[in-house]
Amino acid sequence: MSSPPFPPFPARSNAFHQYVDCKNWIGGRWQDASTGRSQPVHNPRHDRALGLVPLSGAADVEAAAAAARAALPGWRDTPLKERAQVLYRLKALIERDLDELGWLVAHENGKTFEEGKGSVLKGVECLEFGASIPNMAAGSGLDVSRGIKCELSYEPLGVVAGITPFNFPFMVPLWMIPQALVAGNTFILKPSERVPYGSMKLASLLDEAGLPPGVFNVVHGAQAAVEGIVDHPAIKAVGFVGSTRVARLLYARGSALGKSMLCLGGAKNHLLVVPDADLELTATTLAASAFGCAGQRCMAASVMIAVGDVQPIIDATVAITRKIRLGLDMGPVISRAAVERITRYIGEAEARGAKVLVDGRGAAVDGEPGYWFGPTLLDHVTPDMPAGCEEIFGPVLSIIRVRTLDEALAIENQSPYGNAAAIFTQSGATARYCLERFEAGMCGVNVGVPVPREPFAFGGWNDSKFGVGDLTGWDGYRFWTRPRKVTSRWAQQRDMTWMS
Fold first, then answer.
1. Are strands 301-307 and 355-358 parallel, antiparallel or unpaired?
2. DSSP assignment, residue 368?
3. Residue 197 contacts by C-beta under 8 Å, 6 or more apart in sequence?
4. Domain residue limits at 392
5. I need a labelling partner for 255 at 20 to 30 A (CA). Which of 47, 247, 358, 458 fits?
6. Do 213 and 337 fall within a single domain?
7. Do residues 210 and 2 lie in contact, with contact meaning Cβ atoms separated by under 8 Å?
8. In the chain, how many domains are there?
9. Is residue 1 a part of any domain in this protein?
């Protein structure tokens, strides 16, 4: 290990624990930001600061890029299978510290402990796929003519970077890191400044797993750090997960500089419910999808499109929603600004004729004066209401009522987003009809959160993704590499063609 490990997180309950201040991880060392600026990292349950996170600038990005460039030749020349061994060791270390990491995610992000632990385990899945890549990345070769052979291999791009959001501080970085590292790249991570601790633990665990200094670096900060990464000439590719507005801007900015860019944006996911849908399965799944992780996930159900008479399913969803225990079954949202934003969406929908079936406004949890917002159900929403067409990113499920399946599909199709959509039915014909018409990259049948599991890749369509391919799975490996084609001949042939 090249530097003292990041201190263990002490909490094993929701009781507030102050932690330590964050530092950048550059070249295998903890370093202060050159700017001298920082901001507090708030625990959303308690509205208290866990510690400070530095707000780095272009000079800190340059330091990380220099460390990554220096480490690149040695890491690139390390055999593929040896690179993968680091991921195996990291997996074992994460599993060793699973409870600690679950509580850490809960405290910096606001998830319940079970949600935090589950998100870490999903990150472990991504690690497992990354470690398996040496069994799939052998390339290919073919004798294309007499004495002529063509071969394909995947080569690293060099120094690459990831910019990740607040909602999954441990899992989303692991969408990128395994494939990028096993491919032979060196990596710079810029996590959300709201949730920096998961990345600090990743840096420490990768160091403990034996990753050479400089191969993985963490630069904290906000807009200046993001722009420094996208603009830096040594950084050849950038993966981003966040809002559509920022994804579009960064994709355009990086692409104009000749970088490989893959930027995942926002979502407005539609769950279509028809009268033959299983009542218990559908109602339970709707509530779990809309209110899990306080609705702060890009795969959350945000619109239920009720086709025909599905009132019994709506009534059952209302009953389940009212039983959700705030603070136990659902955590807070990320910030006070999020509470205010969600409140505005509900108030505007109500003023325009929507009916509030379950109202989460003004929710509170005794002894935890944080950013609370209860699960909310809005009925009789119309597609032109902001609550019906914009990403709220909170625990709000809007119900739009239509008469026919084609009306429902038209609403889903007109959304600028294309992240996820699902149909709830017991009819295979109905399911297939919808699956062939959804404008979404990830689709479900009786599944409220249709996240593909490894090795299937994560990524939406339209304004939910800017770039080619997907970010996880085999597509992720291809994004962080470039194909090299070799054509070779070792002997003169008597019957040479115009090609040879």
1. unpaired
2. B
3. 9, 19, 22, 41, 50, 104, 108, 169
4. 269-445
5. 458
6. no
7. no
8. 2
9. no
